[in-house]
Amino acid sequence: MKSTIVGILAVQGDFAEHALILKKLNAIPKEIRTLNDLENIHGLIIPGGESTSIGKQIKKNGLEKKIKELGKNGLPIMGTCAGAILLADKVIGKCEIKLNLIHATLERNAYGGQNNSFESSVNTSFGKIQAAFIRAPKIKKIGNQGKILGKIGNEIVLAEEKNILIASFHPEISGDPKLHQYFLEKIKRHQAGC
Amino acid sequence: MKQNTTQVNQNRTLVNRGLAQMLKGGVIMDVVNAEQAKIAEKAGACAVMALERVPADIRADGGVARMANPKIIKQVMKAVSIPVMAKARIGHFVEAQILEALGVDFIDESEVLTPADEQFHINKWNFKTPFVCGATNLGEALRRINEGASMIRTKGEAGTGNVVEAVRHIRSITGKIQELKQKGKKSWKTFSIQERVPIKLVKEIVQKQKLPVVNFAAGGIATPADAALLMQLGTEGVFVGSGIFKSKQPEKTAQAIVEATVHFKDFKKIAQASEKTGTAMKGNELNKLEYRFAKRGW
């Protein structure tokens, strides 16, 4: 079986942690810093980090247009925390760029500063995930076509719309592989053409 | 009561070390007011460090250097959406309590300020807010982690524009981690006793071949090339203090250092970034310094 190559945007943030989990799941992570790096990938992860820093680098290096194009053409893309903010079409708070790839409203730093960061177990459609919410955004609203995959209390923390998957938390730093597993299955379904 | 808080805050290890992980690959810039903070954010900084005076000015003006005025810290927090760090003096746990009350995202227990305690660093487990601490070698880094630091940075020699000490410190840390692996179990015990750190922590770093927390470079970084050098030597991001706002065109210098940090393995990009900078800060030879910040703390 051919291995799945997953690009991870590596201009700032915790891209190495995503790579570690992908390796454990037998996928091949590929760090993305330039336009050329975006060739030959089966999926893309936009990691956690600072959305303004990541956004500026995407703009500068011409990655913005290409990622938009890939996303519109159906490439599976997952964004965690800052990554989710960048993928959304509406953002409450300062926002560097919008990739406009998912109908979702995200509020930046919605819980407040670091003193309000917390760890929680999240009920998702594929089991409980141990997750870290670090200066996390809230997914306030999701479009009609969207699907809610995980909540804590009444709040949406995990959602998808077609090929785009967003999480307001970090499964990558607690090391829980379930979300990445789900994302890899999404990639496989995309490759199989369904 | 005291034990309880400690326990609560140990439960914050994942989110506090986690915030440092989110800063990786980025540049944290020293700022002394809201206006500078905005310039830093615009240039792509992943966080800002609020302080009273940049290290070069502390060096030039002398006197006791303390935590910045809370009014200014609040203005900085209001001005930017990226994380805000602020410095407290070594051992000055009340300055740290103030910073926690203000709601800063990270506290730097910093040798750049005048130490308040010559015997004890702050017990960082007593705080909800994460701490970053300076280190010149592995033993020092592990002592700070054992006291609850969520992030380590090299001390370097702040305010000099001279990168040599930061290079020495990162080489010393990574070199020692490799050496302990090669020398084997017996050396771990000796090291743990000599350096007064738990053997469990020593075993953990030998096995992982890295610190259990994120490790940035700091102290004397003045050019994009300096930043890329430290990244290639294995640090996970950089702090730039005087290097930005003591250069001729702070905004350009800031952008160029960010660019070189992101593309630290891409020589062409580092070259392009280097072209864009204004004149770097003047800098000092170390043997001409009146005092060395890196010698503060232990």
Report on the architecture of this protein.
The complex is a heterodimer of chains A (194) and B (298). Chain A has 194 residues and is of the alpha/beta class. Chain A has one domain (5-191): Rossmann fold, CATH 3.40.50.880. Chain A is 28% helix and 34% strand. Chain A contains six helices and twelve strands. Chain A has helices spanning 15-24, 51-60, 63-72, 82-87, 171-174, 178-191, and strands at 5-9, 28-32, 43-46, 77-80, 88-92, 102-107, 118-124, 127-133, 138-142, 147-152, 155-161, 164-167. In chain A, strands 2-1-3-4-12-11-10-7-8 form a nine-stranded mixed sheet. In chain A, strand 11 (155-161) and strand 12 form a beta hairpin. The two termini of chain A are 18 Å apart. The relative contact order of chain A is 0.18. The model of chain A has no long low-confidence stretch (mean pLDDT 95). By secondary structure, chain B is of the alpha/beta class. Chain B contains 14 helices and eight strands. In chain B, strands 7-6-5-4-3-2-1-8 form an eight-stranded parallel sheet. In chain B, strand 1 (27-31), helix 3 and strand 2 form a beta-alpha-beta unit. In chain B, helix 3 crosses helix 13, helix 11 (224-232) packs parallel to helix 13 and helix 13 runs antiparallel to helix 14 (267-276). Chain B is globular. The two termini of chain B are 29 Å apart. The model of chain B has no long low-confidence stretch (mean pLDDT 94). The chains are: A alpha/beta (194), B alpha/beta (298).
